[in-house]
Write a structure and sequence with these properties.
360 residues; elongated; 7-stranded parallel beta sheet; Rossmann fold
Length: 360
């Protein structure tokens, strides 16, 4: 068998994913191709400092065609593709594997986030077919792997996890004096909730966050907001909201998280929750439902026993008004321990590499 050489296709490389690709490249020669770098500014992404080759693409709604010829270079033995049934060229690469001779790993959620409740019971047949054509499928969580294995028992899948480059650094941070930090940022409330995500989708359910802000005592509860985007509300109307916009300075962000007691994101809980768990924050969110979409990282909150999942705003308000801080601190410890045990970047890289290591 020839030495393993890998080509990876991604829309773009955000900063939080940088060390994952570096970890792959440290073990096997790897080239990264991107087809959507120009969307970074629109999506408020900070780009990673890692080299990638831009390739052309044409899209029609969810259907996307990209120039696949770069991926077919003779030196590549393996190709890693997004697990997306709207990518027509990915179908071509999968169907024609016997001709081009390359092994293909597909990588993604393994389920539609927007149709999770339906596909949890009846997975999308197009996605199942794409998985069945793959030599391996990388999932973010074991729940989606197990779900798809009930329909494809021989599915060669790995739950590699989903994390960010800064996790180890966050976990090892020394604890700072919270009262001093509150004085520094002029935050006076007893209980502080923090939100850290982009305001680019209505599925974040910012309306529910505003409902919570409206209902709570503004002298007792404060909110730190990190993030920007086209759908961001005007938080200047709230005396207890401390809005820092987009924050990429590690020291500033770590101080803000250390002030907070609770991480609160009403909907579309995704990778940002891993960062909050690494900081040892209890996670507050709402139950996945027809109206409240949650990404697969929602499973981490459940598995870690690191937070509360509420059925309504009223339930959350009642809980906050009767909050016991030692119990909240314990949830934060549970969350951080889960990240330490399962969601460090080195563990994500090792799980991903296990497929290649078994082949080499």
């Amino acid at each position: 068998m020839p030495p393993i050489r890998i080509a990876i296709l991604q829309p773009l490389i955000p900063h939080y994913r940088e060390n994952f690709f570096k970890g792959i490249a440290d073990k096997y020669p790897t080239a990264i191709y991107c087809y959507d770098n120009k969307s970074a500014d629109k999506q408020n992404f900070k780009m990673g400092n890692i080299g990638c080759v831009n390739i052309k693409k044409v899209s029609f709604g969810p259907i996307l065609c990209y120039n696949l010829f770069a991926l077919l270079k003779k030196e590549y033995t393996h190709i890693i593709l997004p697990l997306h049934f709207g990518h027509l060229m990915s179908w071509a690469l999968l169907i024609l594997k016997k001709i081009h001779g390359k092994k293909i790993i597909t990588w993604g959620h393994g389920i539609s986030v927007k149709r999770y409740l339906q596909e949890e019971k009846r997975p999308d047949r197009k996605l199942l077919w794409m998985m069945s054509l793959s030599d391996c499928v990388w999932f973010y969580t074991s729940k989606e792997l197990d779900l798809n294995k009930t329909h494809l028992p021989s599915l060669p899948g790995i739950a590699i996890g989903n994390t960010i480059s800064e996790v180890n650094r966050i976990i090892d941070l020394p604890l700072l004096n919270k009262p001093d930090l509150k004085k520094k940022y002029r935050i006076r409330q007893e209980v502080v909730l923090i939100y850290c995500a982009r305001f680019v989708s209505s599925d974040r359910r910012t309306d529910l966050m505003l409902n919570v802000m409206d209902a709570l005592d503004k002298e007792r509860f404060g909110f730190i907001v990190i993030g920007d985007g086209a759908l961001k509300p005007d938080f200047s109307l709230y005396s207890n909201v401390y809005d820092f916009g987009a924050v990429y300075d590690f020291n500033l962000k770590s101080e803000l998280f250390q002030i907070a007691d609770i991480y609160f994101q009403p909907g579309w809980i995704g990778l940002s929750v891993v960062e909050a768990m690494a900081y040892g924050k209890a996670i507050f969110t709402f139950k996945r439902s027809r109206d409240i979409k949650q990404c697969v990282e929602y499973n981490y909150v459940i598995e870690s026993e690191g937070g509360f999942i509420f059925h309504s705003v009223a339930e959350m308000i009642n809980h906050l008004n009767n909050i016991e801080m030692p119990a909240i601190a314990q949830l934060g410890k549970n969350a951080q321990n889960y990240v330490r045990d399962y969601l460090t970047m080195d563990k994500m890289v090792v799980r991903a590499l296990s497929y290649f290591d078994d082949e080499s």
